[in-house]
From TrEMBL:
<keyword id="KW-0489">Methyltransferase</keyword>
<dbReference type="Pfam" id="PF02805">
    <property type="entry name" value="Ada_Zn_binding"/>
</dbReference>
<protein>
    <submittedName>
        <fullName>AraC family transcriptional regulator of adaptative response / methylphosphotriester-DNA alkyltransferase methyltransferase</fullName>
        <ecNumber>2.1.1.-</ecNumber>
    </submittedName>
</protein>
<feature type="domain" description="HTH araC/xylS-type">
    <location>
        <begin position="101"/>
        <end position="199"/>
    </location>
</feature>
<keyword id="KW-0479">Metal-binding</keyword>
<dbReference type="GO" id="GO:0032259">
    <property type="term" value="P:methylation"/>
</dbReference>
<dbReference type="Pfam" id="PF12833">
    <property type="entry name" value="HTH_18"/>
</dbReference>
<dbReference type="InterPro" id="IPR004026">
    <property type="entry name" value="Ada_DNA_repair_Zn-bd"/>
</dbReference>
<dbReference type="InterPro" id="IPR035451">
    <property type="entry name" value="Ada-like_dom_sf"/>
</dbReference>
<keyword id="KW-0227">DNA damage</keyword>
<dbReference type="InterPro" id="IPR009057">
    <property type="entry name" value="Homeodomain-like_sf"/>
</dbReference>
<keyword id="KW-0805">Transcription regulation</keyword>
<keyword id="KW-0234">DNA repair</keyword>
<keyword id="KW-0804">Transcription</keyword>
<dbReference type="GO" id="GO:0008168">
    <property type="term" value="F:methyltransferase activity"/>
</dbReference>
<keyword id="KW-0010">Activator</keyword>
<keyword id="KW-0808">Transferase</keyword>
Length: 204
């Protein structure tokens, strides 16, 4: 088999390659197909037009050799590129980001209650599957993981700042099933709620 014809940056570009990322085939396909799943994961700039875009931008596909990849919009700006007027890579939030922002706000104010993926999807007239997928794409974790992390974080505070019983604290952060609360706590924190309290509570 012949060696793959790898692209090499020329000498000038090596100086900026610290912040630039390589244009992998995966990223190139994302650009060609305006794949919104990649929005927020990288930005691409076009050397000939000095403009940079989100992967989902519907503008004419650039020539591959003119594409520069950046991990953030700020770095593309620093690299001397202007934001595209069409996809507004630095501008307003995309509808999906806004939606997930609302779901996140909802979770933050209702984490003490019983929350399910179905219920969260219902609040925004979406399907659990679509919510799960979009949430994960935008925040990197699933809604369930987000809820669990938030509950455990509040439980840690209550364990240290109050004398309430473990079961009570569990219920207070939305986990009425105490054995489950203890198991999850152990899984996330590395010790039981009781031993966490012993380690962190002062003045006993
Ligand atoms: Zn654009």
């Amino acid at each position: 088999m012949r060696a793959r014809n790898e692209e090499h940056d020329d000498g000038v570009d090596q100086a900026v390659s610290m912040v630039q990322e390589r244009l992998t085939e995966e990223k190139w396909q994302a650009i060609l197909h305006n794949d919104a799943d990649y929005d927020g994961k990288f930005w691409y700039a076009v050397k000939t037009t000095s403009i940079f875009c989100r992967p989902s931008c519907k503008s004419k596909p650039p020539k591959k050799e003119n594409v520069r990849i950046y991990p953030t919009a700020e770095q593309a700006l620093t690299g001397g590129f202007r934001p595209c007027k069409r996809c507004k890579p630095t501008g307003e939030k995309l509808p999906d980001e806004e939606w997930i922002g609302h779901v996140t706000d909802y979770i933050v104010s209702h984490y003490k209650e019983h929350l399910t993926l179905e219920l969260l999807a219902d609040t925004s007239h979406s399907s659990p599957y679509h919510l799960q997928r979009t949430f994960k794409r935008i925040s990197g974790i699933t809604p369930t993981e987000y809820i669990q992390d938030l509950r455990i974080q509040h439980a840690k505070t209550l364990l240290v700042r109050s004398d309430r019983k473990i079961a009570e604290i569990g219920s207070q952060v939305g986990m009425t099933n105490t054995p489950y609360f203890v198991t999850l706590f152990k899984q996330k924190v590395g010790c039981t709620p009781a031993s966490y309290r012993r380690q962190h509570k002062r003045g006993d």
